[in-house]
Amino acid sequence: MASSSPTYISLSVLSAITLLLWTEFAHCNLNRRPNDALDTDFSVPLEHSFEIDDEPIFRRRGSLELRAGRESGVTISQSQLSEEDRNTLKEVAAVDGLYRIRVPRVSLQADRQTEKQADGYLTAFVKACALVESHLSDVITLHTDVTGYLIGVSIVTIPGTCRGLEVEDEVDLESFNTTLTVMAPVNAPMPETALFIERLEQEMEKKEKNPQEQKSFFAKYWYLILGGAVFLMATSSAPPPAGGDREQS
User: Fold this and answer.
1) What is the pLDDT of residue 212?
2) For the chain, first and last CA: distance in Å?
3) How many Å apart are CA 178 and CA 137, to the nearest integer?
4) Strands 98-104 and 42-49
5) What digits encode the pLDDT tens for the residues 33-69?
C-alpha cells in the first residue's frame, strides 16, 4: 500500500500537465489575429501597389485561402492599412493615381497545386480616389477556365467614381471591405438536335402503327381523280351542234 501512493501522485501530476498543455494549445488557436494563417489547404498571396510616381511596387495586402473537400471554396484574409499606407493612398488619390492589385496565375483548386506552377501574375487596377471615397469597399472577381486555373482578375469599387468627397483616414481607411467572387465559364446551350431526332422517331413509330396514314396521294383521292377523268372523256366525245351558218361562194 505504501508503494502505490507515489505512483498515484505521479499519475495525477502527469494528468494535470497534459490538461494544462491542451488548454494552452486551445487558447493559442482561439486567439489568432485576423491576418494569421487559417486552417486551409493552400494560400495564394494578394498584393497591391499605390505609388506617387506610378511605378508599381507590389507588397502584400492579404491572401486567398483555398479549401478542398466538402467545404471547398475561396476566402480572403486581409491586413489593416498602416498609417503610412493610408497617407500614401490619399496622396496618390489627390494626384489621380492608380491603385493596383495582382495575384499569381495558379489553380484555385487546392488539390491540383502540384500540377501547375505559378506562371506570372494577373493585374487589375482602379483609380485610387475611387477606392478612398468608397472607404476601401471593393469587389474582386477571379476568372477561371474550366479546370479552375486563374485566367483573369478584376476590381471595382462601390461606388465606382470619384466625386471629391473628404474621407477621415483614421476611421474609414483602416480595413478593406472586400467582396470576393469566382467566375467560371458557363456552358453554352446545346442545340435541340437530339430533341428533333426524338420527335422524328416518335412520328415514324406512330405511322408504323397506323398503316392507313402511309397511303399515297392516289390511294387517298382516287375517286376524285376518276371522276375528273370521266368528266373529261364525256365532254370531249360529245357531237357538234346541228345546223349553223355556211360560207357562201
Assistant:
1) 59
2) 170
3) 6
4) antiparallel
5) 444 444 456 788 999 999 988 889 999 999 998 876 5
The long-range contacts involving 2-8, CB below 8 angstroms and separated by at least 24 positions, are none
In this structure, the number of other CB atoms found within 10 A of the CB of residue 195 comes to 10
Nearest residue to 63 (alpha-carbon basis) of 102, 113, 118:
102
Grid cell, residue 176, equals 478593406
CA distance 100 to 59: 11
Strands 177-183 and 137-144: parallel
Phi, psi of 115 (to 5 degrees): -80, -35
Kindly give, in sequence order, each residue whose CB lies less than 8 Å from that of residue 206, ignoring residues fewer than 6 positions away. 213
Cell numbers for 28, please give them.
493559442
Q: Which residues are registered as beta bridge partners of 150?
A: 144
pTM of the model: 0.59
Return the DSSP state at 149: B
Are 74 and 118 in contact, with CB atoms under 8 Å apart?
no
How many angstroms separate the CA atoms of 196 and 166, rounded? 63
Nearest of 224, 141, 145, 132 to residue 172 by alpha carbon: 132
- At position 66, the amino acid (one-letter code) is L
Q: How do residues 98-129 score in pLDDT, each as one tens digit?
A: 999 999 998 887 666 555 556 799 999 999 99
Locus of grid cell 491603385: 99
d(CA 26, CA 18): 12
Residue with cell 496618390: 92
